[in-house]
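WARN no homologs supplied; continuing
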Amino acid sequence: MTGAFDAAEALDCGMSDRELAWAFIRGFAAAWGEPLAEVDGTPAAELARAEARLGCSLPAALREVHTLLGARFDLIGNQDPLLPPAEMFVHDEYGGVLVFRSENQGCAFWGVRLRDLDQDDPPVFVQAQHGWVRFLDRVSLACVELVLSEALFGGGGRLYNACELPADLLGAVPERFQRVALPDYPMWTGPEDFPVRWFSAPGQLLRQDGLGVHSWLHVRGRTRADLEAILATVPGQWALGYTESLDAEPLPF
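OK structure emitted
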């Protein structure tokens, strides 16, 4: 069925290991774009060259996500991209951090501490405006978040909208949509945007940044009809207004 994939439902059993994270990404890619293929991965030789240049081994989870979808820029490169192996670098703060993702204007970086590189799926930290802070407990979780966030801003923005939530609408999203099983995590812009939480319905993605006076809701529909349904459900002051027509056919990711 068109738009039937529901992120919250797909993660209902959680992500107790990274194989479940990769399975979710495969299902999400097939439902919202094109199924992943072998050619969508980064070649092993490219990863090996990066390790030689960096002077350290990549954690297993980081190697696996590049092998799975390192060339699928629709999934990893719309806003704050997963860095290609040749662009990964070591940030010398915080005892050394291997940076694997960057905010699109270089305002923030995501990475793994060098002292954690012996772990297969180590914790991820983000360089926020107030310093390096813990982002998510595992690289695999951070990659699921990356794919969801990049999907949010995909499709040239045609199926995206946002609004600032007044106090009387803060509860509207959890009341009307299902929470996606990602832990609360910080937004790099600052503590006023904590926590970040995801919600969904079939064909619909919602990200709520913060619970206070600066709470923002970012939404994406797989189709125009999906987006219109979100806008009708949450009566906010939408930044881009309402779409003028419904389109039941999914647009390119």
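The two ends are 17 Å apart (CA to CA).
OK
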